[in-house]
């Protein structure tokens, strides 16, 4: 069976040298499904354009003016967590490479290797796999960094439903466009809006659901099965969602598939005052990212936080996540 063509992968190039930006752009032009949507000449501009455009892929130099590439990557991961990052740099110092990849970027290509290895890096990173230039592989670096790759269990505090749905759409679309899988746990009122937004992003939502790479769950139905006397059954949670993650990953076409899992279930518990239940399920989510190839994005409504009286509990929620951001 012939594999369907992928929708466009939207790319941001950040490098302070015009010649390198032109060279990278020309490499991407050889693949029509890879679309360069913007360029940045310094780290601050890279962060700004990443936040504004939410590209699927960012090719990021390390030695950028105003804000270096490593710090820019940290900020981008908070503002556009679905964007995958490949560092393209002249620097081959192993400590620098390790610091760069510790931000959550998946690829590191030395500029001397770019012409023959950038395509390989893009293909690997879009499938959720780490790629490090062959000129660095004689060291012990590659294996140790893979073992220390950070878990993605992130928190979104959203101001309104538009922010929530747009964030979920980007998160899911990036996974499905890279041949990975996705699970969305949303309210019934948001399901159709999410489907329509994904279709607008070029995702064959109905096909993905039929194929099993996209699983759409209802918050109310899920909570009815998980909660016993107002608190979650941790064993049932881990069993049920481990099965779902394995099922979705098995249906994915990526060589080493990952599953993007986003939901507003825990935010609903929080908004209803069931903070203990929310924290217990967050702990369960943390176990999932440690035992499965899954990235989790939990969403909480901003209106459910009421100042100083909620600050301590909110810090407990943040502590269960690898990153937190508000929109």
What would you note in describing this structure?
The protein is α/β, with parallel strands linked by helices and 327 residues long. The chain folds into two domains: 9-147, Rossmann fold (3-Layer(aba) Sandwich); 153-326, 3-Layer(aba) Sandwich (Rossmann fold). The protein is 49% helix and 20% strand. It has 14 helices and 14 strands. The chain has helices at 18-29, 43-53, 69-79, 94-101, 114-126, 141-147, 161-177, 188-200, 205-211, 219-226, 234-251, 265-271, 275-291, 308-319, and strands at 9-14, 34-40, 57-60, 84-89, 107-110, 131-132, 153-158, 181-186, 214-218, 227-228, 231-232, 259-263, 294-301, 323-326. The strands form three sheets. A six-stranded parallel beta sheet has the order 2-1-3-4-5-6, sandwiched between helices. β10 and β11 (231-232) form a beta hairpin. α2 (43-53) packs parallel to α3, α11 (234-251) crosses α13 (275-291) and α12 runs antiparallel to α13. The chain is globular and about 60 Å long.
Q: What order do the strands of the largest sheet run in, or round the barrel if closed? A: 2-1-3-4-5-6
CATH class of the largest domain: Alpha Beta
CATH topology of the largest domain: Rossmann fold
What is the terminal separation in angstroms?
Answer: 42 Å
Helical segment count: 14
Count every beta strand, where a strand is a DSSP E run of 2 or more residues: 14
Q: Which value, in Å, is the CA radius of gyration?
A: 20 Å
Which blocks of ≥5 consecutive residues have pLDDT under 50?
Answer: 1-6, 138-149
Order of helices and strands: EHEHEHEHEHEHEHEHHEHEEHEHHEHE
Number of domains: 2
The second-level CATH architecture of the largest domain is 3-Layer(aba) Sandwich
- Portion in helices: 40-55%
Portion in beta strands = 15-25%
């Amino acid at each position: 069976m012939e594999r369907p063509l992928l929708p466009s992968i939207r790319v941001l190039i950040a490098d302070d040298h015009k010649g390198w930006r032109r060279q990278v752009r020309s490499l991407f032009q050889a693949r029509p499904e890879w679309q360069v949507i913007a360029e940045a000449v310094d780290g601050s501009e890279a962060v700004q354009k990443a936040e504004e455009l939410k590209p699927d892929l960012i090719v990021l130099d390390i030695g950028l003016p105003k804000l270096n590439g490593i710090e820019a990557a940290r900020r981008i991961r908070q503002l556009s967590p679905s964007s995958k990052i490949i560092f393209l740099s002249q620097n081959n110092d192993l400590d620098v490479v390790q610091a760069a990849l510790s931000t959550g970027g998946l690829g590191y290509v030395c500029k001397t290797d770019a012409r023959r290895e950038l395509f390989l890096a893009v293909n690997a990173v879009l499938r959720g796999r780490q790629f490090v230039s062959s000129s660095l592989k004689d060291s012990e670096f590659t294996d140790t960094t893979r073992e220390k790759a950070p878990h993605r269990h992130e928190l979104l505090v959203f101001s309104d439903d538009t922010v929530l749905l747009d964030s979920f759409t980007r998160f899911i679309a990036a996974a499905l466009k890279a041949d990975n899988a996705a699970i969305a746990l949303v309210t019934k009122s948001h399901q159709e809006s999410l489907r329509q937004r994904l279709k607008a992003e070029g995702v064959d939502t109905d096909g993905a659901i039929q194929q099993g790479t996209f699983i759409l769950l209802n918050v109310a139905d899920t909570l009815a099965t998980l909660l016993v006397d107002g608190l979650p059954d941790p064993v049932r949670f881990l069993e049920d969602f481990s099965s779902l993650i394995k099922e979705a990953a098995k249906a994915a076409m990526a060589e080493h598939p990952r599953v993007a899992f986003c939901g507003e279930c825990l935010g609903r518990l929080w908004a209803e005052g069931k903070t203990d239940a929310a924290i217990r399920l967050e702990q369960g989510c943390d176990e999932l990212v440690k035992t499965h190839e899954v990235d989790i994005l939990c969403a909480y409504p901003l209106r459910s936080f009421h100042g100083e009286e909620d600050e301590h509990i909110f810090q407990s929620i943040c502590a269960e996540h690898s990153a937190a951001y508000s929109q």
